[in-house]
Each structure stands twice: as C-alpha cells, then as structure tokens.
Design brief:
Helix content: 40-55%
Family: Belongs to the LysR transcriptional regulatory family.
Distance between the termini: 44 Å
InterPro entries: LysR_HTH_N, LysR_subst-bd, WH-like_DNA-bd_sf, WH_DNA-bd_sf
GO molecular function: DNA binding; DNA-binding transcription factor activity
CATH class of the largest domain: Alpha Beta
CATH architecture of the largest domain: 3-Layer(aba) Sandwich
Largest sheet: 8 strands, mixed
Keywords: DNA-binding, Transcription, Transcription regulation
Radius of gyration: 26 Å
CATH superfamily of the largest domain: Periplasmic binding protein-like II
Pfam families: HTH_1 (PF00126), LysR_substrate (PF03466)
Length: about 325
C-alpha cells in the first residue's frame, strides 16, 4: 500500500468522480484509476461502487476512509517535523488569541518571529477565550493565548501565565463620563446601560459575575458583539462596556476609567494540549514570544498591564 494510492482514494471519495479526482490530484485519469485498482487488489475488496454518473463507497471503502485520512495527516505532520528540524526553513504555527491581544501586543511579536523564520506559516485564530480553549481541545490550534482560570469541564492543557491585565470601563468621548471620579466601583454600573460581548468572551463572564456579586443584574443596551463591534457601539453612545485596558490604544473616540472596589484583573496564559507535544515551530514561537515580552518596559505596557512570564531557559 502506497501513500499516493491513499491520496488518490481520498480524492475519489471526496469528489465521487474519477475524472474530477484526477484533475484535483494533477494526474492523468487512467493512471489514477490504475492505482485505485492496484489498491483494491492488494486489499482484496472493491472500494467503490462504479455506476454511471454515481460513484459511492463500498463498506470496505467506508472502513478505509477514516484510516486513510489519519495516515495522510500523520504523514504531513511527520514531513513538517522533519522540515522544521532541518533549520526551521519550513513549518506552521496555528495560534489562537483574544481580540484585545491581536489588536495589541501580538502583532509586534508575530512580526519579530516572521523576520527570524520567514518560512514558517503563521495561522492566527481570533476569538474569545472560551472558544479558543475548545479549539485547542479539538486539535485545531497548536498554541493559544487564553484567560485563566480554566474550568473543570475544559480539556487538559499546559498553561504558562504571561500577563496580568486590569479591566476598565470605556465610554464615548462625546458623552459624559460614567462618574466624576478618576475611578469607578462596580456598583456605579447598576443604572448604566452596558454594551455586552457575545458568549465565549471571558470578559463577559467576568463582568456579569462582578455585577451579580455586587447585588444587581446589569442592564444591557446591546448584547452579542465581537470586540470591534462593542467598541464601536460604545463610541456611538449606546452604553458603556467593561473591556481589557489594551484595546484603548488608537481609539481616540473612547475614554477609559479604571475600576476599583473590586478591581477586575485577568491573567493571560499561553496554553497547549497536555497530551500533544508542541511542534518545533510552535516551541520556537513560544521562545520568541517570551523573549519579546522580556524586552517590554513599563512605558510600553502602561499601568494596567504587567508581564509575569517566567524567563525562558
């Protein structure tokens, strides 16, 4: 059994057409058909029911399909690992990050990594922390910047805390500030309409929990937005929102007010699955990210953000 035969088998299984499968595989149709027949002879069973204009899998083909997919995926993983070992000229990092980090520190860290390893493909998934944790568990990401703590129902992850950040209240510069003070209490949000993130954002859960702990249910003016939408709704004067401090950068239409009593903090961690070792490319990115964080000064971070990443050995 050859890997190329399995690739041709998958192409036919996906297209349900020998000619289209040959086009996708960039091979002559007679050659593809010959390899499929050789695979069937070796396995001792037909893999397809060949009816005019209708190609379907036989029971043997249905049994082979997931095995062939796994074998070819493992082959691609092995190929990438070998290429990464050969000087890190090729490879891939699938990274998840929250929108505030994508708009803030992550861009510079990615740029530094790309300069050093231009052949490494960078795939970034931007989403809420809860969604990223689930994506890690499904194997769709190599690394993710998530918010701690984990829940008991979360997949088993290895987490390294790297940043601690304050949450603040943002309001429109065109509307009166939430209070006349330099900071706010959670109870000051009792009678103010809130613009709220969709489910999947940790900051949504943190805001609702803090309000309920203070004895009230917040009034929601708009609910269900992504980060950019929430900030735009606040700029338009629909309400205020509790957000990570770093999103205020380059947002002149927004005013930020610190929270106190209680102060809302969140810990950002770099995570990967416990049962899957990170690839060489992912480890190189982790090392580069830690090194980048080590170069940041208080002026770079501001008073609401603190680096807590351990030194890389």
């Amino acid at each position: 059994m050859q890997f190329q035969q399995l690739a041709y088998f998958l192409a036919v299984a996906e297209t349900r057409h020998f000619t289209r499968a040959a086009e996708v595989s960039r091979v002559a149709q007679p050659s593809l058909s010959k390899q499929i027949r050789a695979l069937e002879e070796e396995l001792g069973a037909p893999l397809f029911v060949r009816a005019r204009g209708n190609i379907t899998l036989t029971p043997a083909g249905e049994a082979l399909l997931p095995l062939a997919q796994r074998m070819l995926t493992d082959l691609e993983t092995a190929r990438r690992e070998v290429q990464e070992l050969a000087g890190m000229r090729r490879g891939r990092v699938r990274l998840g990050a929250t929108p505030s980090l994508c708009a803030g520190l992550l861009a510079d860290a990615l740029a530094r990594f790309h300069v050093r390893f231009p052949g490494i493909e960078l795939h970034v998934e931007e989403s809420g922390s809860r969604d990223l944790i689930r994506a890690l568990g499904r194997g769709e990401l190599d690394l993710a910047l998530i918010i701690l703590p984990l829940h008991s129902s979360d997949p088993e992850l290895v987490t390294v805390p790297i940043l601690r950040e304050s949450l603040i209240v943002v309001s429109s510069m065109d509307h009166p500030p939430p209070t006349g003070r330099v900071s706010m209490r959670i109870t000051d949000l009792r009678d103010r309409p809130l613009v709220m993130f969709r489910r999947g954002y940790d900051v949504r859960d943190a805001t609702l929990y803090a309000c309920r702990a203070a004895g009230f249910e917040p009034s929601l003016a708009v609910e269900g937005g992504e980060m950019d939408a929430v900030l735009r709704f606040v700029e338009a004067g629909l309400g205020v929102a509790v957000v990570p401090s770093m999103v205020l950068k380059n947002r002149p239409g927004l005013r930020g007010t610190p929270l106190s009593r209680p102060r809302l903090l969140r810990t950002i961690a770099l995570a990967h699955r416990k049962d899957v070792a990170p690839s060489h490319a992912a480890l190189a990115f982790r090392h580069g990210l830690m090194g980048y964080l080590g170069t940041l000064t208080e002026a770079d971070l501001g008073e609401d953000l603190e680096v807590i990443a351990p030194p890389e050995g």
